[in-house]
Amino acid sequence: MQHTLPPRLTLRGISKQYPGCLANDDIHLDIAAAEIHALLGENGAGKSTLMKVIYGLVKPDQGEILWDGLPIEVKDPAHARQLGIGMVFQHFSLFETLTVTENIALALGNEAGELNALAEKIRAVSEKYGMAINPDREIHTLSVGERQRVEIVRCLVQDIQLLILDEPTSVLTPQEVDTLFITLRQLANEGCSILFISHKLNEVKALCHKATVLRAGQVSGECIPADEDTTSMARLMVGDDTPISTTYPKRQGSTPLLKIIDLNRASPDPFGVDLKHINLTVNAGEIVGIAGVAGNGQEELLASLSGELPCQDERTITFAQTPMGTQPPDQRRQWGLAFVPEERLGRGAVPEMSLTENALLTGFLTGMVSKGMVAWQKAETFADNIIAQYKVKTAGRQAQADSLSGGNLQKFIIGREIMQNPRILIAAHPTWGVDIGAATAIHKALIQLRDQGAAILVVSEDIDELFLISDRIGAICDGALSPIKPTPESSIEQLGRMMAGDFSPSNSNERVNS
Amino acid sequence: MIKLEPRGERSSTMAYLSPVLAALLTMLTGLILFTLLGVDPVEALITILYVPISDTHGLAELCVKTAPILLCAIGLSVVFKAKIWNIGAEGQLLMGGLFGSYMALQFIEVEAFWVLPLVLIAGVLGGMCWSGIAALLKVRFNTNEILTTIMMNYIALNILLWAVHGPLKDPDGYNFPESALFGDAALLPILIDNTRVHFGMALALFAVVAVWVLMSRSFYGFQIKVMGMDTGAARLSGFKEKRLTYFALLLSGGLAGLAGVGEVAGPIGQLIPQISPGYGYAAIIVAFLGRLHPLGILLASLLMALLYMGGEMAQISLGLPLALTGLFQGMLLFYLLACDVLISFRIRLKPKKITTSPRLSTLASETQG
After folding, report:
1. Which residue of B has its CA nearest to A310?
2. Each residue's pLDDT tens digit, B235-276
3. Interface membership of B81 toward A (CB under 8 Å)
4. Cβ proximity of A466 and A460 under 8 Å
5. B346 touches chain A (CB under 8 A)
6. How far apart are CA A235 and CA B334, in angstroms?
7. B239 to chain A: which residues are within 8 Å by CB?
8. Fewer Cβ atoms within 10 A, N terminus or C terminus of chain A?
């Protein structure tokens, strides 16, 4: 019966050229009513551009959009919403100090109607789809997962025909992912089409009816995820020349190098997270991974370790018995700390500066400055070495940092930190937004540094990554740190509960199956 | 609706051409302006841009005018690189002149080699003290330096007026608001005989070289640049933000102070109420016109000095108002900013938003039905 109906949305030959990059190249896509359709692809494959075309944020240079078989031009997001297209972005656009109802009313504009009626509607919708939200709560009191529900409910209070979700699971714990999937299946059963954008193959396999894979702006394949294995889908995503998966042997550390003792800190940001009694030891020759949903105290913990936010008591943080808690960042670097921040442009590298200057940015303690003068030749050699050894694709050391792709810049930053031979390395989200090839290179570099005897702390939202490279693993939730356990003795299930704040010892009776 | 759209690629050639373009556009507008005023435009341009420097005397005067502008502008290039917007070079210059004058007046009768260094140091300290207040307020209370430095300009001017009408007034000066003439030992030596070109020009050129080395070779200069471009990166690398802020502001204040004391101990030779025709403000334009680069600033300050002289010349020989100087300065800055914007953005004229066409809205309701 469905075959007689035209697809709800059809894209025909969509192309979009940006200066220096063909983001979408002749893309065809069909989404039927009640279908959950995955849009798979690596970062930079053109997924975001395509969904912006559908949502009316970007005008395609070429191509046609058919809505229920009729050609249309989506003029702007308001028009898209009128058609029945809803979209949940990766980065939420909610006002912290307003309530759920007020936020949704703002998004709806004139259609919002009377606030009390809207609140009732929100309550009804959220109950119907199993997404409990109190409409009167202010946004800043909500967790990230709850905020995502607000965004979804915002789409559902209108008549919705197509829901677009951009990487929705990246901010959720594994348990929250399951709940989200239940909601999405229920929606699809009622006839709503869903476009699910992701690069996580397991999730696509578990949820989606069909998948379209993008690579470098083009459709590289279409498949039915249930009939494929993850490797074949990964091949479509990355092409033939990139290694897909590896495993690394686990190690046990010996002497403690990095120690945090009872770290308490009120966040300087009014909407930040206070750190509560954090105790952590990282030994020489091991990688400790800390999982957690964004905004649970990671930034505050990392800033305390880098020295950007010094502690009250110098003994709170020690590097191999040396008290470091009150020391500024350069003193900690002098001791042998290296640090890879979350933001690679903006903290890790200065966008408008050359790679040579960015090599000097943290490498200045390794003999590149004498008597206050910069030995530019040494900085240039250092930059050249990083580029060569970490296979950074760039025009050369004089290229500006912001001319590099995310993955290449990250390789440069990781290389810059590792080549200073640190005793302790702290890396935040080391492969965030990086393609699979670069991620593998970064993982290998971290493992190699570990095997040379460095203590490494990795904070990441990517659980798969943490299980892959960590020797011990734990989670941070609401500013408190779970017990850290050897990775082979923990499971994704268990880690998920810890990410949600359940640190109880009973949460440890299964063994991992990988 | 007009919309600015980023061009994507930045052209460094265009970035350097932009000041040249701005200068040409300023002249073009000048030609139109003169025509409208009923003056022969070509003659007017020649009067402003060529006559002042058509002889050696004129060239010497150009150097005299360039020195204070160059000193202020080269100092400003350092703070501006740190993205600290010191608009107070004028006030710092005035304080430099005042402090220097005070010192010079203590030693009118003394003929010793140490008098001049002392006077110069006092001037530098005067400028540093004025920018130091702004630095303290910024570091301690996070005060916006644009506001504080502008306000401090007026305070400096009024302190100077008070001093020259009061405590520093020449007792034998028939009640004119002027100090006594400085002793010879407090005056900057003349570099070229029979001209007014004084040692201040040498100091200015030295400052240009010193700042060049500081910003391109020293680690301190590198840290200042990083702080200006990216505070997050500077903090993560452990650069001392407060110390760098003090350093940059004190340096620019000190150089502006030197410019001020160079005027009173140079061509003027005493403290008077008008020691600067707005050199400190002109230096802001010069710093940007020179792309914050020492060489560019040197060229731009020569141009600015020429505009000061040309404005006077136009008043004398063509009867045009002196406001011409300010007008040309303003146009120069305006065109520079406009060129910069147009180099990195293109203008898109967007048609006005069309209301939903009936066909589409029926379509929308059909699909929802």
Report:
1. B238
2. 999 999 999 999 999 999 999 999 999 999 999 999 999 999
3. no
4. yes
5. no
6. 55
7. 330
8. N
